[in-house]
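Translate sequence into structure tokens.
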Amino acid sequence: MTLDATHDTALRSWVESANLADSDFPIQNLPYGRFRRASSNEAWRIGVAIGGHILDLNLAAEKGSWPQKIAALLAPLAEGRLNPLMGGPVADRQALREALSQALAEGSAQQSALQPCLLPMADAELSVPCEIGDYTDFYTGIHHATAVGKLFRPDNPLLPNYKWVPIGYHGRGSSIGVSGQSFPRPLGQTAGEAGKPPNFGPSQRLDYELELGFLVGQANALGERLSMDEAEDHLFGVTLLNDWSARDLQAWEYVPLGPFLAKNFATTVSPWVVTMEALAPFRSPFKRAEGDPQPLPYLDSKTNRERGGVDIELEVWLQTKKMRDAGQDAVRLSRSGTAGAAYWTPAQLLAHHTVNGCNLQPGDLLGSGTLSGPEPDQAGSLLELTQGGKQAITLPNGETRKFLEDGDTLILRGHCQREGARRIGFGDCAGTVLAAR
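Result follows.
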């Protein structure tokens, strides 16, 4: 969480598009992604987003001039493997970030060598940025938990454990896809009429969930639990995450063991991992509302109280098939953020995940849970926006939605912005619903 020369707001890049005020990827960001040239059979490699381009670290490792230590750190990235860097020491990540920042900065002696290593983003095909072995989805959004709880338990929306323990369930890593993912509407069982068998067919209440994904860096051994301060060093970076949800399947199956087929048919992440180093200027104090219980000691630390949070502004956009066919842009459904929405910090999620001795691996993904704000227009799901499907929302072209329909493209966007820091973003996290097979 240390600020250094890589965060300097005056720092500019010789890649001109990175200097635009609204760029998601200025030189102060430098997120990692996995890519290859579009419509090619090239091997995947790791790149760094800079403005509207990607710095190809395979070519950069070959053509640039790097100290021996930096060349060694670039080697697995050139082969398309981000996990070795994720699992390495924090000092190595910081050293590579500093070297890349210097190489891409205005006046760098590396410019002529690295200029041919740039690929326009429009010419790239992007993949899931790292190998994700396991996926756990948490439920940190207190406004979402309260709003959904009120739909089912108006007098007692939050269960007694919510403010004491980070609630989560183990998801399925194999169905995680990258922005641009398309998937068929899921099929499954839903509740039948009273006294009759359940129904089977396509979900009619398909929803999205506005989330963040926290990617694990260094591993911990089986049986080793991480303290809060250790957990900070075991976090590598953040993506946007959409945990698509079939609400009607979920209502029928989630008792007594929780989500299953309603959640594991698709999860979409943004292609760029914004590192914890890049997020250092946007850390914030962890505070609980007056009257709420304070965390148990294993979920508490001085560092977490002072700077455990991460302030990220989030948006949800929708483009229907009818809008797309008419050449109309997506429209914003809601705007929220992490400030005041996330009841637990990333380090608390990781520390809790390991307190029983669970061993996490580099690339494991921890979902934040839906991050809704307190106001109706800050909802992070259609379940909230439509009051459980009771009140349809009307789009500018006259279409209405209670839940997602075939052909709908849902886009998550996020950025960090604060006085005294350069705005950085995450890129789009988009997915499209296809007809059921």
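Note: The domain at 135-434 is CATH 3.90.850.10 (Fumarylacetoacetate hydrolase; domain 2).
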